[in-house]
Design goal:
alpha/beta, five-stranded parallel sheet, single chain
Length: 146
Amino acid sequence: MDLNGKIAIVTGAGRGIGRAIAEKMAEYGAKVVVADLAVDTVVRVADELTQDGHEAEAIAVDVTRASSVDRMVRGTVARFGQVDILVNNAGIYAAPGWEDRNRPNDRDWDMIYSVNVKGVSKATDAAVRQMRRRQYGKIINIASGA
């Protein structure tokens, strides 16, 4: 797979599947935006990719907030000039504190829905606006344990 010259945003790239996707895309030549809620992890992953000779940028994002997702896309365009690929990988399978209760409550389900469904929609909407201008773009949606 040749991704030379392509700009890829990977959400949920701080660890796990998202990190592996970001690493593989970088190996194939993409410039990668490592995006995740956890600032420390995105900085670490982007730094490691850079140390391995790849071009990467760390951007903290909360996919439940449209303003944060818009900032992620604007930051990508400011740094790399475009967005070619969006990988919607951010997801949760349990809300904070879930394991301390016997059963999930409405707030737990609202959080899961906000990240796993609305987050994908918000990121897609923000990226598509940039992709339409160039009449090019690829969007990949990932679901795992979520």
